[in-house]
Amino acid sequence: DQQVKQNSPSLSVQEGRISILNCDYTNSMFDYFLWYKKYPAEGPTFLISISSIKDKNEDGRFTVFLNKSAKHLSLHIVPSQPGDSAVYFCAATTEDYQLIWGAGTKLIIKP
Amino acid sequence: NAGVTQTPKFRVLKTGQSMTLLCAQDMNHEYMYWYRQDPGMGLRLIHYSVGEGTTAKGEVPDGYNVSRLKKQNFLLGLESAAPSQTSVYFCASNRQGATEAFFGQGTRLTVV
Fold it and tell me: Are B19 and B81 in contact (CB under 8 A)?
């Protein structure tokens, strides 16, 4: 049973527009939620995180929103740039700091 | 800044062969992890370590063994490789209490 789900395998967005990546989870005990970005042939790199006690965290063009009642979080990228094309993973931390990962969403930014 | 280094980057094994993947980190991190990534799936935790000399099983530990004899190194062993272990393996590390983990570049393993 997947505890962290990313239901969209891919997403295509026009350059300059907003990209919205979604993630759902089932375990209400997760402490933190993180977004990682992954380019081909590289390891994932940390992008942004949010504590379970907050509903929004912003870092430059990236904003993560958390809706605990819906067990849903989303990553907004505004404006989208060609370098944003990558696979984005949503992950959640357990009490012992293990990371539970979603399957990833491939974001394609069109010129 | 080396960060997290994995060796080798690529390997082809025959069924039944053994091998060891090495992960080294130079950030003095307490926690280290081994993940595998398969097509259409997120990263799945194989084994992890919260400190030198300690290891624990993750989500998919069967067929793998690990050792953490030194704080900076985390070894993943396959005693008798099977085609089902064809995957991309990632090592990661983080400070105790930190949420962000740092990843190596990955090892692409093919078992034929």
Answer: yes
The Cα–Cα gap between B14 and B17 comes to 6
CA-based nearest distance B89→chain A, Å:
10
Task: Give the tens place of pLDDT for each residue, A58-111.
Answer: 999 999 999 999 999 999 999 999 999 999 999 998 877 678 899 999 999 999
Q: Chains A and B: how many Cβ contacts under 8 Å?
A: 53
- And the tokens for B105? 């570049």
Report residue A101 as tokens.
């990962």
CB contact under 8 A, A99 and B104: no
Q: What is the pLDDT of residues B47-77, one digit of tens each?
A: 999 999 999 999 899 999 999 999 999 999 9
Least Cα separation, residue B58 to chain A (angstroms) = 9
